[in-house]
Amino acid sequence: MIKRLGKYAFQAAIILAALGIFALAPISAAHAQSRIKDIADFEGVRDNMLVGYGLIVGLNGTGDDMKDADFTRQSMVAMLERLGINVRDQIENIKSDNIAAVMVTSTLPPFSRQGSKIDVSVSAIGTSESLQGGTLLVTPLVGADGEVYAVAQGPVAVGGFSASGNAQTVVKGVPTAARIANGAIVEREIDFNLNAMKSMSVVLRNPDFTTARRISNAINAYLGEVAARPSDPGTVRLTVPDRYNKNVVSLLTDIEQLRVEPDQIARVVIDESTGTIVMGENVRISRVAIAQGNLTIRVTETPQVSQPSPFSQGGTTTTVPRTNVQVDDGSDKQLGLLDTGVSLQELVNGLNSLGVGPRDMITILQAIKASGALQAEIEVM
């Protein structure tokens, strides 16, 4: 009886293991997919850029030079006049170096409400050497329409520093740029009623026909009706179903969690300045032969000094030239053959086997593209 139970337990373990394998299969496949919220944006849910001009005070002699920064001097005079102090007659005698003119930038998040706080960035525009220890005075931040949406003020936090002496100067980071955490208060809201929308656009961050169709199919399959249709490679038009009327937030919450597999074109991105090459998964090569080699001539001069023997009467000290010439004509390089339809990994392995570096690989890829054998788009940054 015990042996029989042991046999049944062993069979049950095998069945459970098989069920576990089948259960894990769709999970692993799902990891290759992306959520819609990670590859697309929804109409109306967007940031807004803000900018302002202000003054930072309290600098320890690292502010703007009043002789070279007239705008800083004029801004300080205007600020003091607003506070009831008239120094316009003495404007030429102002020599303070503890003040700096700065540009203040920030991003107004979507649906920010009046009274909420946002971070701001501060950047010097004059001759200031460092903003360390400074305090930003009240600075209105305006949008593209010229309206004030936030007001910034507070002590700045600098990520770098600068120290100098008579013979050496040490600079770490950028001491003329700083941030103020929660340094601005939102004063004006952007009027946008999301729940009142009857239709909206789902905008793809990387436009693609196939991805747009997959997103619309995933949305329609979830809703059980044809509510989404791709209008172009970068836009999917979504009609709000009746059951989500005046509850668009719930609709977007359900839709953004749906998973689709984004498609992408075969592309090779090249950064000439750094020698960086990024190749997509779908890059393919037709049958082509590749050879790479450069002629290198290296001339090294190592002159030697020849001296006469000790106590010699007629000898003189002279310099004897020694020249070493080395020629590398690339004779050790081999002709590599890449077959039709090779994958990205095979392409990289083939080029590496030729001893090709990133710089030479850029030239080879461009030559392969020119020959018509590279089935991908090359984008040079």
From TrEMBL:
GO terms for molecular function: structural molecule activity. Residues 1-32 form the signal peptide. It holds the Pfam family FlgI. It is found in: Bacterial flagellum basal body. InterPro entries: Flag_FlgI. One of its GO terms (cellular component) is bacterial-type flagellum basal body, distal rod, P ring. Keywords: Bacterial flagellum, Cell projection, Cilium, Flagellum, Periplasm, Signal. Residues 302-323 are annotated as: Disordered. GO terms for biological process: bacterial-type flagellum-dependent cell motility. Transmembrane segments: none annotated. Its main location: other. HAMAP family: FlgI. Belongs to the FlgI family. Assembles around the rod to form the L-ring and probably protects the motor/basal body from shearing forces during rotation. The basal body constitutes a major portion of the flagellar organelle and consists of four rings (L,P,S, and M) mounted on a central rod. This is Flagellar P-ring protein. It comes from Thalassospira mesophila.
